[in-house]
């Protein structure tokens, strides 16, 4: 979920387990959502996205679920590997009125640690 | 290789000394954007550009300028840097398309303003 203050939420899992990372987004008018992975010393890397007219989308080992009723987004990672260890961010776009095409609002991130 | 390239990667400078961080992308993306990342505040958008000669403010534009004279380049300019602009900066780009295009990020520029 979202963090408060300087301490990011953390999730520790064993290699091979499934991971679920949650995100509560802020704007009910948001129409597009993205999950990013950020490794130390690197920029955010795109994982998967979903539009607001969908409630589920699957990629390779990842699934994003969108619950617009409660403004909740989750990222599921199957068979988590040590290389999945990183900070994961959700981002939402509110383009109501078509004036904010590029305006992404990011969550503060969740630290995922995968133990061998 | 498709990428967003930022330079410099690290810079330590002093208050008031103008600096420019360059950003270049080789994917023919129309859209480019600058973010800053601070502990506890996450990624915040500074400026973005929908295409050449089209720029707009993000959430935290104060103290920054940008220009988009060419499609591939989107420099971030700090005319008179101050210590509160010490941060990690990311440039990103994407196609405009139907509006649902993920942004691709550079590897960041760490600025320290003394």
Features:
heterodimer, A: 116 residues, mainly beta, 6-stranded mixed beta sheet, 4-stranded antiparallel beta sheet, globular, B: 114 residues, 7-stranded mixed beta sheet, 11 strands, 0% helix, 50% strand
Q: Could you write a compact summary of the structure shown?
A:
Chain A has 116 residues and is mostly beta strands. Chain A has strands at residues 10-14, 19-24, 32-38, 45-51, 56-58, 62-67, 72-77, 86-93, 104-106, 110-115. Chain A has no helices and ten strands.
- Terminal-residue CA separation of chain A: 24 Å
Rounded radius of gyration of chain B (Å): 13 Å
Largest interface by residue count? A-B, 26 and 29 residues
Strand content of chain A: over 45%
Radius of gyration of chain A: 14 Å
Total beta-strand segments of chain A = 10
Extract low-pLDDT stretches of chain A: 1-5
The number of distinct helices of chain B, counting runs of at least 4 residues, comes to 0
Count of alpha/pi helices of chain A: 0
Largest sheet of chain B: 7 strands, mixed
Helix content of chain A: under 10%
The description of the largest β-sheet of chain A is: 6 strands, mixed
- Overall 3D shape of chain B: globular
Order of helices and strands of chain A: EEEEEEEEEE
Q: Spell out the helices and strands of chain B N to C.
A: EEEEEEEEEEE
Q: Quickly give the structural class of chain B.
A: mainly beta
Describe the structure.
The complex is a heterodimer of chains A (116) and B (114). Chain A is an all-beta fold and 116 residues long. Chain A is 0% helix and 49% strand. In chain A, a hairpin with a 3-residue loop joins β5 and β6. Chain A is globular and about 40 Å long. With 114 residues, chain B is mainly β. Chain B contains no helices and eleven strands. In chain B, strands 2, 4, 5, 6, 9, 10 and 11 form a seven-stranded mixed β-sheet that branches. The termini of chain B are far apart. The mean pLDDT of chain B is 93. Chain A binds chain B through residues 3, 5-6, 32, 34, 36, 41-46, 49, 51, 89, 91, 95, 101-109, and chain B through 4, 31, 33, 35, 39-45, 48, 50, 56, 58-59, 90, 92, 94, 96, 99-100, 102-108.
